[in-house]
Specification:
The structure is a single chain. The protein is α+β, with helices and mostly antiparallel strands. Helices cover 37% and strands 26% of the residues. The protein is built from 1 helix and 4 strands. Strand 2 and strand 3 form a beta hairpin.
Length: 148
């Protein structure tokens, strides 16, 4: 008898998953967590940016409405008694955290014409501010007439 025949032959072991083992490895879990983390941070950054822009847009809209409301108020006051309520006076108001001020100036003819002031027309410059940033200001210029 041959003794070598009975000695088992050692095969090279390969790193294979067992046929019934179908789980995730630690490396796969870590990679997926990193990907989910990057996506989550990106979404939060985008959402924060949208909130800031929405707030700025809302403040700008409210400031424009306050200026429009004040222009109509000045025009209605002049319309009630044009002789005593013209020219309008400078003023200011604060509402909803927005400060609106206006200055009444003389109105002149367009460039190239004589530089005399128009008698029945005034230039009104409205400034609305609601924060300390550079973009937190709205400036509107309009003209108001004594005769509508």
């Amino acid at each position: 008898m041959n003794l070598l025949h009975k000695v088992p032959v050692l095969h090279r072991y390969r790193f294979k998953k067992a046929p019934g083992n179908c789980g995730f490895s630690l490396l796969e879990i870590l990679v997926s967590l990193v990907i989910v983390g990057i996506i989550g941070v990106s979404i939060m950054t985008l959402q924060t940016s949208v909130w800031k822009r929405s707030t700025t847009s809302n403040r700008l809209l409210v400031a424009g409405q306050l200026i429009e409301k004040q222009i109509e108020s000045i025009r209605m006051t002049i319309d009630q008694n044009p002789e005593s309520n013209f020219p309008p006076q400078d003023g200011s108001l604060v509402e909803n955290g927005i400060s609106v001020s206006w200055k009444v100036l003389s109105a002149y003819r367009p460039k190239g014409a004589t530089t005399t002031a128009l008698k029945n027309v005034r230039q009104c410059v409205f400034t609305a501010t609601w924060g300390k940033s550079k973009g937190d200001t709205l400036l509107v210029t309009t003209y108001i007439s004594q005769l509508f």
